[in-house]
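step 4 of 6: structure.
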Amino acid sequence: MTPPDRPRARRSARGRFGEKAVLLALAAAATISVLVTVGIVVVLVEEGALFFTDVPITEFFTGTQWFPLEGKFGVLPLLNASIVIALIAAVVAVPLGLGSAIYLSEYAPERLRRVVKPVLEILAGMPTIVLGFFALDAVTPALQMVFPGLGLYNALAAGIVVGLLITPLISSLSEDAMRAVPNSMREGAFGLGATRRVVSLRVVVPAALSGIVASIVLAISRAIGETMAVTLAAGTIPNLSWNPLEGMQTITAYIVQVSKGEATRGSLQYDSIFAVGLLLFVVTLVINIIAVRIVRKYRTVYQ
Amino acid sequence: MTTNVDPEKTAKDSPIEIHLAAGAADRGASQQASGAQPGATSSEPSLGPPIFRLQDMGVWYGKHHAVRGVTMDVPRNAITALIGPSGCGKSTALRCLNRMNDLIPGARVEGRVLFGDEDLLSSDVDPVDLRGRIGMVFQKPNPFPKSIKDNLEFGMKVNGIKPTAERVEQALVDAALWDEVKDRLKAEAFSLSGGQQQRLCIARAIAVEPEVILMDEPCSALDPIATLAIEDLMKNLAERYTLVVVTHNMQQAARISDQVAFMTVEGTAEGDRTGVLAEVGTARQIFSAPKDPRTEAYITGRVG
Ligand SMILES: Nc1ncnc2c1ncn2[C@@H]1O[C@H](COP(=O)(O)OP(=O)(O)OP(=O)(O)O)[C@@H](O)[C@H]1O
Ligand SMILES: [Mg+2]
């Protein structure tokens, strides 16, 4: 027989101490990540501000030429390239991602789903520089058969591989959203004589719409932020054009080019990467806020 | 404490209060009881011509024989109540009648279920068409996250019925919901109360113009007032539709049903626990003079 009171009291005291330690560790982790984020923003704003003392902000946003060596800092070509490639990526990834999400959630037998889903997610973890090579070695040559005279560097190939990169993001998040739709809703529709196609497209997809839209918006934000694949595939020549068959330089590709180059610290060219970095940050932040808003506004709460 | 009732006693003496459905007793000749109860023939007044004839129907979930040997008729334009202890396979049996078990991986239905003169379990029968003719209402209200009107129009469109305003109104009137929602047909179905949602689900089933409506414990999530409203509704519906209703509520079964089927669980030699049909008869017979001792034990509240 053990004396009942003492050991129990001691154990719970130690338990409370452990509780506090965990709480402290978690609070520290949260504080650090917030501080780091704030730090990044502060650096971006500070250095960006330095840039804007030399280049008027209006010129930055309205100029159509980006030739830092000649002092031409119109950001539109870079922004435009980022948008063009993200849109191409979305055109590729939305049907692929949604299609596979619907298939996995509504059609695939459980066993197949358990195999396919992780495989798709591996694609999401692929180093993006590998995708860049893939664009140069496979996608562009294939496209050249359709569009003779297509240059090695072009936005189309870049957009396609970025699309492949974000497809798993859309399919995985959309599938989660669709599987969160309660089965009772499907049964209700089947019970009325609906086919599986109608149940999937008219009941499950609308019921999961907020999650699906959020996944698409997040994927686009990821596409805009994507760096290595587009640097390799779309080239490093700023070019204000909507023609996906031309090469163009995205915001991210420019940052890479300058960071690895010889721009001296404190030069205008060096400061410019903080200005475009800040722009990139704001763009993706706005997109992510939109995604969160969508989820909040249209989230259906299922009992 | 509950008393054991002598099966010979009349309904008046039964320990549970019984209000048999109007007309239930007047409906003609007799029906053979299930195979699980050999020799249980009855000279009860009958219930009109059958719409379903279940012949040795059973269900497997993988290696689990969930229901076995169900043989009974379901009379047209009447309410058949399916009662029995939890887990005895009532839902499973009910879901055979519109092939909902097809949707469960590993589920297999055996035997025959004649609907008219075709075996609805046959592979020639398209379950999608069948479910348009045999509607279903579930235990938990499950409206779609759409407007009230869209909820009703969904089934109509799926079944090639033109979704007119008149049809929407008629279904809501039939489901005793029209007065409460007529001014807000565009409102989200989720904005309705639980009882209203369940009536919407019934309206949704009616709007498809089925011949049969299967209901799996349609009132179990509702308060007594909403329950009574839905019971009234079921009695009205039975004039035009055939209803098969699973219920745990004995009083409810007694109030609404014309025929009662009592299911129970039997152990098998293999150690499985299988649902069987112990007894089927008119509501009056089952509640006043059950033939199977297990039925009697259940309805008097000693088991289950
Ligand atoms: N989808 C399923 N997969 C495997 N087994 C199932 C499935 N659904 C039901 N069962 C099993 O079949 C048996 C009958 O279940 P069923 O749901 O039909 O009972 P029930 O009579 O409706 O019970 P309740 O009154 O609690 O609703 C149970 O043993 C249950 O575990
Ligand atoms: Mg059940």
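step 5 of 6: annotate
 - The pocket of adenosine-5'-triphosphate (ligand 1) is lined by residues B 61, 64, 66, 86-92, 104, 275 (CB under 6 Å).
 - The CA atoms of residues 65 and 269 of chain B lie 12 Å apart.
step 6 of 6: archive
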